[in-house]
């Protein structure tokens, strides 16, 4: 990799990676209705596919970690190129405002949907109390805190120390810090979404800071990319081992400390994969076109709006499809969630006001 050309212009490969990570969240939410350890807003009674759910568990170990790593990297890029004032204004318009807009809509909508599924009475008190739940919007809250509240000098300070470490030592440090905050998450379990957000934000701050440091010291990239820990075969073998671990836990109902081994291995995998994916996707040569631009630009709106759609249809589809079609059940729900959200995206783009509050570029009018 030539350091001088690293992100010297818009990189469609990394933009697609970021959009893909966001859209994977739609698939994961569509699958959460399958029976499992964690309770969900709607729980289907159909038999899950262990192979499929193990794959989704694997994806869950790295999806948000890589997303925050990319976010930190792009944050450093914007600050260095256009300054902190531009960056803060951009984050207020592209992150904070869409968060507030979605927060006004999603919690009460989810409350009404839950009451409809359970045939319970909707009350004004219940609607107001629904705002204590963040649902899938937590990641925008964390991203807003990292972008707008944590001083830039903190990231600069971390970047200086990260740059002094060989990549294997740096990865080991990130793994330890990430797992430390992952453990703290269990101490706040059951304390409500806003309390739980503290260790969650701290954990993903580790990845955000690592991505920020990578761009600040991009002169190290040529050395990093050739490191022994950036071996594609090693990463693929680790991914296979983690997938097999999740499969064994689900298939044989393993309990106790042993059931957390795949998750622990996933914490190692997520750090390695964050660097590896950046190095690989940055090299991908893709010509920008309308379809790719639409996928990239619509990803955030799709993620914000898909949530009530996939949960509503997980409830409706459960009575329409035979119980043995668990994978088809999830995939149909996923496609519906994407399709409805894409339609909403195009409707939003028709309005300058709606485009503004959801952080997307409005449709340009053609002048004749």
UniProtKB/TrEMBL annotation:
Keyword Hydrolase: no
One GO MF term attached to the UniProt entry: acyltransferase activity
Cross-referenced InterPro entries: Acyl_transf_3_dom, Glucan_succinyl_AcylTrfase
All residue ranges annotated as the Acyltransferase domain in the record: 12-345
Protein name: Acyltransferase family protein
Transmembrane segments: 51-74, 95-113, 133-155, 167-188, 194-216, 228-248, 260-279, 291-315, 327-348
Tree of life domain: Bacteria
Signal peptide coordinates: none
Keyword Transmembrane helix carried by entry: yes
Key words of the record: Acyltransferase, Membrane, Transferase, Transmembrane, Transmembrane helix
Source organism phylogeny: Bacteria, Pseudomonadati, Pseudomonadota, Gammaproteobacteria, Enterobacterales
